[in-house]
Every structure is written in C-alpha cells, then in structure tokens.
Amino acid sequence: MKQVDDSRVLGGWSFSMGSAYQFHSWRVFVVVCALPCVCAVVALTFIPESPRFFLEMGKHDEAWMVLKQIHDTNMRARGEPEKVFTVNKIKLPKHLDELVEMQSDSANPVAKVLFRIRTELRGIWLTFMKCFNYPVRDNTIKLAIVWFTLSFGYYGLSVWFPDVIHHLQSDEYASRVKTHNNEHIEDFTFNFTLENQIHTNGVFVNDRFISMKLKSVTFIDSTFQNCYFDDVSTVGSLFKNCSFVEAFFYNTDIDDSKLVGSRVINSSFHHNKTGCQMTFDDDYSAYWVYFVNFLGTLAVLPGNIVSALLMDKIGRLSMLGGSMVLSGISCFFLWFGTSESMMIFMLCLYNGLSISAWNSLDVVTAELYPTDRRGTGFGFCNAMCKLAAVLGNLIFGSLVGITKAIPILLASTVLVGGGLVGLRLPDTRGNVLM
C-alpha cells in the first residue's frame, strides 16, 4: 500500500492515497450539507419547551416563565415594554400518569406500560380524527391537497431539472464525437488524453499507451498486437469485440467490465487500479449537478425576503395562491428551453417563485388549526408532502430523456390547481389563534 506521502492531487477539491481511496469534492459537499443539521441540533438545546408540555409534566412555574418570556418579547416588539404579564387562569391537562394509576390500583408495572401505550395510541388516533371534524374538516382536506400538489411539483422538478441539463450536455457531447475507421498504427506511443472518439476496425501493433486517459472512447472490432499499457485510466470507455494478443497491462483500470465481448490471448495484467478513478475534471457534467442545485437554492433568497416583508400586507392566501399559479406558469415556459443557460434561468425563476408558497403555507397551516390539533394537523400535511415528494421523484425521474411534454404539463397543471385550491382556504390574517 502506498504511503500518504505518495498521494497525488487529482484536481478540484480531491486527493487520493494510492488508487483505492479517492476523496472527491462530492464528499465535501455531503459534509457541508450536514452542517446545518448539526447546528440545528445544537440550537434546539437553547429553545425552551412549550408551556403545554411543562403543564403536562406538572412544571407550572416553568410554564409560567415561558409564557411571560413570550409576552414580554411581543410587548417589546409592539412598543409597549411596560405592560405587565398577568395570568388569571391556566387549564391543566389530565396527566397520563394519573390515568394509569386510576386504571390499575395494584400499579402493576406491565399493566401500567401496556395501558400507557394503549392510551397514547388512542389519544393520537382521536386527535388525528379531530382534524376531520367540524369546523376544520374542509380546511384539512384543502390543506392536504395544497401540500401534496406543491410538494409533487417542487420535488419532482428538483430531480428533473439537473437530469435534463445533464441530458442536454450529453446530447451536445455526443454530437461532437470523432469517428476513426480502419486505422493501422504501429510503433507509436500514446501519452496524451483521447476523448470522445470511436475507433472501428483498427489495428494497433507494438504501440505503447503510457500515462494517459481514455475519456468516452470506444474501440470496436479492433486488434491490439503486442501492445503495452502502463498507468492508463478510463472514464466511460469500452473495448467491444476487440482482440488483445500478447498485450501487457500495468497499473491500469482495464478489467472485464471494460472488455465487452473481447478476447484476451497470452496477455497479462499486473497491479490493476482499484476504486473509483473519476473526478470532476473527467466528468464536467457531474460538477454541473451540484452547481445547478446551488444556483437553484440561492434563488430562493429573494423569495424569502419578499415573503417575510409582504406576507402580512398582501395576505397569506394571496401569496400562497399567487406564488403557486405563477410557479405553474413558469414551468410551462420550460417547453421552450433548448439550452443549458435557459433551463438554469427557468430553474432559478421557479425556485424563487415557489419559496413564497412554502412560507405562506407553513403560516396558514399553523393558523388554521386550534392548539389541541395543530401539531397533528401539521404532521398529517407534512406526511402528504413526503408522499408527494417520493411520487414526484419516481415519476419525473423516469421521464428524463424520454419527453419534456409530460413533466412540464403535469407540473404546471398540479401547481396551478393546488394554487386555486389554496385561494379557497379561510383568510387567517389578523385572526387570534384558537
């Protein structure tokens, strides 16, 4: 095994130790994406529990302190810091432990645990069913539709956009392929990169392939007679129905997966490379997958600012419905996207418009449910969101490279329809939470 001192830089944010371990920048990308989750976990330790939780745990003083903190913060924001916090009455919820003791006088531990589980499950089910009782039943159905349609279009297109751009790049790359037929090369040294080529019926005699790369190169029905391969890396390259006679391979990644239907006669392989040899320098389109996602994520910043400033002025429903309808209309113009730059621009426009819908939908969902059903109702809507995201990824992903019409029309129709349903929700602006 090679030592760390022998590691070589591969380009970009990547390095390798020998040929088995390759640390490319996609790993750095994953680590960076995980940092916000770690920061969120740390930040949660500084957030107080809800007053309801403290009351259920019997911690009345802690609940009072949290309520006072909320009151003082709101009064300072309203310019009335001198207003004193007063509480006339607090309704205490029934403790589950009290119900357990009431159920079992003997306080049998097993019976208490089983009863606790049954009570918790029954309470969850009853709370869930309350979301479908009057007066929130219609709101629950409408919210579920809006969450489903917005998530289906958003996550479906998030998968579809980068793959479509990659497909456009692949088509352009394939259109520039160079074809070589019936060539005969003898006593020649290849020490440079061959890229995007097809060699058919070629004959290579006493040739040397040294310290080189084969990038998207295909040899078809070619013969390699007494050739020497040393430090050769291949990316997207194949040898189809080729013959290797008395060839010598040293420190290459050419193996059975690259030799499709080929014959190897009196040839030897030594010190083959292992592990992934691909870098972003080799596959530039892989870089674009991350870069396009970065641009799409960056485009939501203006939408977040606009929604924060205008939500109370134009209303939650107007922002929700208008954002979804405009997002659906912007999707329709993807039909005319024929270049990478145009598709990236439409992706940024779509993300910038749709983020306002997400922000207003969160606020509307929280304000439409009373306290005893808010968490359950929000959780049910989020479950519909995740279901739609899975379906969107599967459906849109299967249509990449096949047709643009179905994903575009499907996303546009779903988003516009969900936006119209969102406009039918009750306006919660200025309402006191139940």
UniProtKB/TrEMBL annotation:
GO CC term (a single one): synaptic vesicle membrane
Q: Which UniProt keywords apply?
A: Cytoplasmic vesicle, Glycoprotein, Membrane, Neurotransmitter transport, Phosphoprotein, Synapse, Transmembrane, Transmembrane helix, Transport
Provide the membrane topology annotation. Answer: Multi-pass membrane protein
Q: Which residues form a coiled coil?
A: none
Q: Give the location in the cell.
A: Cytoplasmic vesicle, Secretory vesicle, Synaptic vesicle membrane
Where, by residue number, does the polypeptide cross the bilayer?
Answer: 26-47, 143-161, 287-310, 317-336, 342-364, 376-399, 405-425
Domain of life per record? Eukaryota
List, for all copies, the residue spans of the domain called SV2A/B/C luminal: 178-269
Q: Which GO terms describe its molecular function?
A: transmembrane transporter activity
Swiss-Prot/TrEMBL GO biological process terms: chemical synaptic transmission; neurotransmitter transport
Q: Does the keyword Cell inner membrane apply?
A: no
- Primary location: membrane
Q: Which family does it belong to?
A: Belongs to the major facilitator superfamily.
* NCBIfam families, per database record: synapt_SV2
Q: What is this protein called?
A: SV2A/B/C luminal domain-containing protein
* Species annotation: Oncorhynchus tshawytscha (Chinook salmon)
Tell me the organism's taxonomic lineage. Eukaryota, Metazoa, Chordata, Craniata, Vertebrata
